[in-house]
Each structure stands twice: as structure tokens, then as C-alpha cells.
Amino acid sequence: MVSRYVTSSDGAQIYTEAYGDPSKPALILVAGYSLHSIVFEKQLELQKDLFLVLYDSRGHVCKEYKLKKPVFGGWSLGGTIVSDICHHLGADVLGGVILIAAVPFLDLFPKVASPQLLENVPRVLEKSDVKTSREGSRIFRQALFYDVEKVPFATSLAWMGSILLMPPETGELVIYRKQDGTKFLEAGKAGLKVMYMYGKQDMHHPNGMVVVEELRPHFKDIKVVAIDNAGHSVFYERPEETNKALLEFVKECHA
Question: Taking every annotated instance into account, which residue ranges of this chain make up the domain AB hydrolase-1 (predicted)?
Fold first, then answer.
């Protein structure tokens, strides 16, 4: 494993990790809202076949790791970064896109999120009442899983700690910033490959197929992978099915 801090154009220090052989096809994975790249612990086995790069929320890892046409994989709100990439760098830097229970731009978030999630977000972002904020974060974490009782206590602590580390001001910017998904949609008509993966028991995004319906007019051959007995953290709860689908799609993009 190689870890590096990458400096963005605005001076922000971004933590990144890379696993595997750089000569193999590259897959970038980005964690969702308020979460850290530790959530992808069960995807590390993919380093046998891929060069796996992880970073937190945003990053400039393509240049730092000399990646050529990597496949971008974003989980949840981490998927919105693909629109930033297409808008600022152009879609031709990507070999493909994987949306893991994700939205590719923020306008879609209210359409796919559950009423409970939308109601709970203000609690997570509460600045003056610690009790409300902590309770909101606890509810947020629990709903990440289909069967939260099966999640080891150490994992629960790590994920909860990641959520609590996010300042409310940062959380507001992530959700309420202005974003333009036009270039991403245009990339579909130019042939960019997209796979949408979701857990059938997702409590955060129960309307996830809305994303597919919105994208189909632009991405004619969008691939859909639905995994049973899995919630929003489908990659954690069903790693074998997830990793198989990830590997197959990356190989398709590099065929």
C-alpha cells in the first residue's frame, strides 16, 4: 500500500491510498457522504487484478499516480464527483464510471433519497445542539446497512468516527453546493460507459432506479447490477458479488 497527500489547485491536502500494480487497469473508489476510504476494506482483494486507488471525497489522484483512463467508482454522494471531473477535465480522462448506490450530480439527490434521510440530514448538520447532532449521525450510520446487527462493533466505531469528524459546515457545502451535470450527460452520447450498482434493501436511496431512468436517454447501454440482501453499503454487505461486478466492468472498459 502507498499513501500520499495530494495538493489540489486550491491548496487543499487530500489523503489518498493506492494498492496493487500500477501497470494494471486502474479503479478509483470514492466514499460517500461523511465517510472515509476505510469503508472499502472488503474491496482491497481487487488489487490482485487492478490498481486500486482510494481517496476521500475529492482529489487529484490521476496526475499523482500517473493513471491512464481509470474507471471512476463513486459511492452515494461520492458519485457526484464524476460530474465535476467531466465539467473541469473532460470525460475523455475516464475509462468508465461506476455509480454505487450513487447520484452523478446533486439535482438527483432529492429524487432518490428516502424521506427519513432527507428529514435526518439537518440533524447531522446541527451546529448548536450536540445531542441532536449525535443522534442524527447514529441514525444515519444505522441506515447504511440492511442488517446493522451483523456489522462488527469495531467497524461501527470506525464508520461512526468518520461521520463525526466531518464539520457541519463541510457537510452543508457537500450537499447544497451548485453543480452542473451537463458535461456528464453529454459524455453518455459520446460513448462513456456507466454501471449502476445498488442493494435491493437500500434504506438511504430506496428510489435508486430513478437514477437509471434519468440516465437512460443519455447512456443507452447503461449496465445495472441489483444485489439482494444488501443495503446502501452494498459493497460491504455483499463483497463477493460487488467485487465480481467491479472487476468485470473494469475489464470491459479496458477491452
Answer: 66-244
User: Domain 2-110+180-254 is in which class?
Assistant: alpha beta
> What is the Cα gyration radius of the chain?
17
Q: How many CA atoms lie within 13 A of 189 on its CB side?
A: 6
Which pLDDT belongs to residue 220? 86
Please name which of 76, 96, 75 lies closest in space to residue 85, comparing C-alpha atoms. Answer: 96
> Which residues have CB under 8 Å from 131's CB, separation 6+?
none
Closest CA to 143 of 237, 16, 24, 218: 237
Angle between helix axes 81-88 and 182-189 (nearest 10 degrees) is: 80
Residue 235: exposed, middle, or buried by beta-carbon count in 10 A (0-12, 13-18, 19+)?
Answer: buried
**For the whole prediction, is pTM greater than 0.85?**
yes
**pLDDT on residue 33:** 79
